């Protein structure tokens, strides 16, 4: 049996109020006045890579059990690098083995489903468990409908053959060059064609073909589908499609539109990961997504479903949202508003790539060195261990810190340096079991931390070298809040 | 067995530029200003100088790199000039090198000069410094106020001090220094401030407000040192001699073990113990007449009082509020106004501190002169509390 053996998701903490956007733009685009709810909004230090890492950690849990991942597929239409393996950055952050087969996929809204199909094939061919991660950090034009409809999120599925939670039954694909929207290389935002044509000639005619093909391969009747997932920015498109395909109306799954918006490429997997938290054994799930054709996958939930819980789960991420009513903050975080940075914002962020390579384990994976003799933990790792003035040489072994509980020893929040979201919070963080790092804090409110506050680690953008177009990543501390990632032993 | 530096070297002369926003002056002008005063005070000619040490931190404004900037600015007679750089302790390091050279008999008379022209960097505070290729890839893009402000959060936790009370105590540190600086014509800021002004100032780095931070100033200071017998041959009396010159540098313990609680500065305690030992001081609270400490931020000064063993651990905030370190207190601190009123032209600060002690010990401090001081202590802290260079220097009247 091959199928889903783990699932997880990620929704950024910030949720932009649609009403706040509509109010700010009412002078220009009054047609959006009635919009309700929120859309997920990536923080300034989040992108598709960091959100993919967050979703993958949600799926995989603590670091100890990651050797089983033999393949990594990162699907996104908003990858920060055109040339540099984005999945390689994710693999490093997850401390996957160097011989993992990692690839980037994209180009259509259904690329995440293509990745799942490829992962199934890979497992079938004996390639071992494969992690599929999908993420999008969507850029839109100010005052556009997409600004309100889109959202930023990520999802992850582990595909394998042991302890399968949802068996893969079959899939169907239609690859045609139906261009409902496009984004040329180097462009940041999409160009769209007329909605009614997209809906009637595109989705309405093409998606049923892929769905029919998938159901046929799976040997499942449309009427047997218990959960139908079809992301679309068009209202009730999923219900119309279900009706056209003979799927029961009650099978149509809520698309999280009111909280997240449409996160694009990862949205199908995000909703699936959310559904799997409560799915019952025996339930048939049909997941379809549209884009340059259409793709559909059919799963049947197994008895094992109750044996797995993601670290926080999509519902956990949804619950920890913080409404953001500041529209200019959204624009600034998306790079659409040039704010005064002061002289400290002129600092050159050139990265020494040789240094980054030499220290890749510490930087990408937050791996410290633990002295085998004294047990003292050093970050960054070093050849000499601190030991009461009698240093020991070459006694440190790799010791991952990313999943260890931590707390604040000391902190401050300053308004002097340039920071995209002032005040700039940082401080000394102590890890349970040893290790101390002076590090940046993120995703927190003023007054939320003090000495002793429990923190957890998140993989984020450290700096962006705008002169050379390079993004640098590292780990930051954020208040642990509820449902912390389980402790790694 | 090392015997220490006590009374082996005397100050022959000192000079200090006016500190402030010296828009009219180049770094060279500032060096000349301090040097000219020091040479006149020493009563010697350039040919009598055997060697020089030059302290400057930033290379942004052309005073960094090598010994030539000092030698050319002062037209020195081709003597050896060495640039020393050890963060904010650079000035004290230049003194240490000059004093050691004289004590070793390598030369008879040595010069130490420190300068920094911060106002030519264009920043309202200190500019960001470059820290190599690895650290920026993981370390916060941290600024000094937030690094030192962390002392406050850890101190509050360790000693259970109410945040508002600690804020008031550190406000008093600044109020006291401004009151002192108001009597010093060479200080950048010569105006007293009220506690209310300090408490209500905009926050720079929680919980430090604008008046909890040292000023940003240009300045230079110079010292000429020699052996006591040479000073006497040159007609000097009431000699001020070096009692101790100690530097302690972090080795990673603070940031790489869980033993340090972040509420104090480990290296200051080590340097202070060594310095008291070298100077033969058994009870610093009774024997030290005055201090010039590294008040880069008001919380630093408060914690330093404990680290120098002038207050009990955890009691410093009470002593500060009691006025123990005011001009009329039991051990006056920053009688010249401190970094608070002189600003912190990094390379110059250590020598500027010594300048005040020298004047005080010789009874030449004018309106701010203390009654009969015999022993003074300077303290510098470079880097940040968790990873730093600390210097503690003690000077006093010969035989004290």
From TrEMBL, chain A:
UniProt-listed InterPro entries: ACP_syn_III_C (IPR013747), NA-bd_OB-fold (IPR012340), Thiolase-like (IPR016039)
Keyword line: Acyltransferase, Transferase
Keyword Acyltransferase: yes
KW Acyltransferase (keyword) present: yes
Domain Beta-ketoacyl-[acyl-carrier-protein] synthase III C-terminal: 215-295
A Gene Ontology BP annotation from the UniProt entry: secondary metabolite biosynthetic process
Highest taxon of source: Bacteria
A GO molecular-function annotation: acyltransferase activity
Name listed for the protein in its UniProt record: OB-fold domain-containing protein
Source organism of the structure: Caenimonas aquaedulcis
Lineage: Bacteria, Pseudomonadati, Pseudomonadota, Betaproteobacteria, Burkholderiales
TrEMBL record, chain B:
GO molecular function: acetyl-CoA C-acyltransferase activity
InterPro entries: Thiolase, Thiolase-like, Thiolase_C_2, Thiolase_N
Name the record gives this protein: Acetyl-CoA acetyltransferase
One Pfam family it belongs to: Thiolase_C_1
PANTHER family found in the cross-reference section: ACETYL-COA C-ACETYLTRANSFERASE, ACETYL-COA C-ACYLTRANSFERASE
Domain Thiolase C-terminal: 257-392
Family matches, as CDD domains: SCP-x_thiolase
Gene3D superfamilies referenced in this protein's UniProt entry, alphabetically: 3.40.47.10
Domain Thiolase N-terminal per the UniProt entry, residue ranges: 20-227
SUPFAM superfamilies, per database record: Thiolase-like
């Amino acid at each position: 049996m091959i199928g889903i053996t783990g699932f997880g998701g990620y929704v950024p903490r910030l949720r932009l109020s649609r009403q706040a956007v509509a109010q700010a733009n009412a002078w220009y685009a009054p047609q959006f006045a009635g919009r309700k709810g929120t859309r997920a909004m990536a923080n300034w230090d989040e992108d598709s890579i960091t959100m993919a890492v967050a979703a993958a950690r949600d799926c995989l849990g603590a670091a100890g059990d990651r050797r089983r991942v033999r393949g990594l597929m990162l699907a996104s239409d908003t990858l920060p690098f055109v040339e540099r393996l984005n999945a390689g950055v994710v693999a490093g952050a997850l401390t996957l083995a160097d011989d993992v087969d990692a690839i980037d996929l994209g180009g259509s809204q259904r690329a995440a489903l293509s990745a799942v199909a490829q992962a199934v094939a890979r497992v079938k061919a004996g390639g071992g468990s494969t992690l599929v991660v999908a993420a999008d950090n969507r850029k839109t034009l100010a005052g556009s409908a997409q600004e309100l409809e889109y959202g930023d999120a990520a999802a992850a599925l582990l595909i394998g053959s042991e302890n399968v939670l949802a068996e893969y039954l079959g899939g169907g694909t239609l690859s045609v060059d139906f261009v409902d929207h496009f984004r040329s290389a180097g462009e940041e935002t999409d160009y769209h064609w007329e909605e009614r044509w997209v809906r009637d000639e595109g989705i309405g005619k093409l998606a049923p073909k892929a769905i029919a093909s998938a159901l046929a391969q799976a040997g499942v009747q449309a009427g047997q589908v218990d959960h139908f997932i079809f992301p679309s920015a068009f209202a009730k498109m999923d219900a119309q499609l279900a009706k056209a395909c003979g799927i029961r109306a009650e099978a149509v799954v809520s698309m999280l539109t009111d909280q997240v918006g449409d996160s694009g490429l990862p949205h199908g997997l995000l909703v699936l990961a959310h559904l799997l938290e409560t799915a019952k054994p025996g339930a048939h799930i049909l997941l379809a997504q549209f884009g340059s054709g259409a793709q559909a996958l059919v799963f049947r939930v197994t008895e094992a479903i109750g044996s797995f819980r993601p670290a926080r789960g999509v519902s956990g991420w949804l619950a920890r949202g913080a409404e953001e009513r500041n529209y200019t903050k959204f624009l600034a975080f998306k790079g659409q508003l040039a704010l005064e940075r002061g002289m400290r914002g002129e600092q050159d962020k050139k990265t020494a790539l040789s240094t980054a390579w030499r220290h890749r384990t510490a930087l990408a994976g937050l791996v410290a060195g633990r002295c085998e003799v004294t047990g003292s933990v050093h970050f960054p790792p070093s050849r000499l261990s601190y030991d009461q003035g009698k240093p020991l040489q070459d006694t440190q072994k790799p010791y991952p810190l990313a999943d260890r509980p931590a707390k604040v020893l000391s902190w401050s929040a300053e308004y002097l340096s340039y920071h995209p979201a002032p005040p700039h919070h940082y401080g000394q963080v102590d890890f349970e079991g040893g290790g101390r790092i002076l590090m940046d804090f993120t995703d927190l409110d003023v007054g939320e931390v003090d000495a002793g506050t429990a923190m957890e680690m998140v993989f984020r953008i450290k700096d962006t070298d705008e002169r050379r177009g390079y993004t640098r990543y590292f780990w930051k501390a954020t208040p642990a809040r509820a449902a912390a990632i389980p402790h790694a032993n | 067995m090392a015997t220490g530096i006590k009374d082996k070297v005397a100050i022959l002369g000192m000079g200090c530029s006016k500190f402030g926003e010296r828009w009219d002056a180049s770094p060279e002008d500032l060096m000349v200003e301090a040097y000219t005063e020091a040479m006149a005070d020493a009563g010697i000619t350039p040919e009598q100088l055997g060697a020089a040490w030059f302290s400057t931190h930033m290379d942004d404004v052309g005073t960094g790199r090598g010994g030539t900037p000092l030698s050319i600015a002062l037209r020195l007679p081709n003597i050896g000039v060495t640039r020393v750089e050890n963060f904010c302790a650079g000035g004290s390091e230049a003194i240490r090198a000059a004093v050691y050279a004289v004590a070793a008999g390598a030369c008879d008379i040595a010069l130490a000069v420190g300068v920094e022209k911060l106002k030519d960097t264009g920043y309202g505070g200190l500019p960001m410094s470059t820290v190599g290729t690895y650290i920026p890839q993981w370390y916060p893009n941290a600024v000094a106020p937030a690094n030192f402000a962390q002392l406050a959060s850890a101190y509050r936790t360790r000693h259970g001090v109410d945040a508002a009370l600690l804020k008031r105590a550190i406000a008093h540190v600044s109020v006291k220094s401004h009151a002192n600086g108001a009597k010093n014509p060479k200080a950048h800021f010569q105006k007293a401030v009220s506690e209310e002004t300090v408490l209500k100032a905009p926050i720079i780095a929680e919980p430090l407000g604008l008046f909890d931070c040292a000023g940003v100033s240009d300045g230079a200071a110079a010292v000429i040192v020699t052996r006591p017998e040479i000073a006497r041959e040159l007609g000097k009396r009431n000699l001020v001699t070096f009692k101790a010159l100690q530097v302690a540098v972090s080795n990673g313990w603070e940031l790489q073990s869980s033993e340090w609680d972040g509420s104090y500065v480990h290296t200051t305690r080590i340097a202070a113990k060594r310095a008291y030992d070298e100077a033969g001081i058994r009870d610093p609270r009774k024997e030290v007449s005055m201090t010039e400490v590294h008040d880069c931020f008001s919380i630093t000064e408060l914690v330093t009082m404990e680290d120098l063993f002038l207050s009990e651990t955890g009691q410093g905030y009470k002593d500060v509020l009691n006025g123990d370190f005011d001009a009329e207190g039991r051990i006056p601190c920053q009688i010249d106004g401190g970094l608070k009123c002189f600003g912190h032209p990094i390379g110059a600060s250590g020598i500027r501190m010594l300048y005040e002690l020298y004047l005080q010990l010789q009874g030449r401090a004018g309106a701010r002169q203390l009654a009969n001081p015999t022993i003074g202590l300077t303290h510098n802290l470079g880097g940040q509390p968790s990873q730093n260079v600390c210097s503690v220097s003690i000077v006093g009247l010969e035989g004290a």
